[in-house]
Amino acid sequence: MFTYLFSTFQLLLSVHGGQTDFVVGYPVTLRRGRRMRGSIGYFVNTLPFRARVDPDGSFDELLDRTSRKLWRGSMHREYPYAMMPRLLDTPREPNRAGLISTMFVITDGDPGDPFTEVREPGRRTECAGLGISEFYLPQQQGQFDITLQVHAASARAQIKYNTSLFTEETARGLADRYNALLTESLRTKATL
Question: How many helices (H) and strands (E) does the chain have?
């Protein structure tokens, strides 16, 4: 599901921005295995993904290319994101968000994770003798120009955007276009 939704997001960005070669970030977990399940902390790293959308290619080709690149990227999931600009020797531009200005996030629930069920509004659980529930804080600003956050369990998506770069109408248009691209890619095997 991640690959499909992420590929569609790349297509959306390419269609909207007119670019065929760009970078999108995505978070990966560093908390792997049962041994880490009881640990508390921020076990997430951001990986850059160089998206290359071929305007004459098919969606299946984009999906296949994305899948292979995500697999290769997972091999380097522990390399610190903060060190990547040095590795690439890219100068810091003060008017840009950094190496990554666009982000794709998917949250899915791990059935063994006690915090999974509290991501549903109104749900409570108990962990280590404490009652836990979600406290939702709406957020529209962040460190990226635009972020698509998909909540897999509830099939909801949210676009977070920099309000000095995007209007609400533009963000709604992007959301509608993303939904249309998802629908179209399921319906046909049309070329990009």
Answer: 4, 7
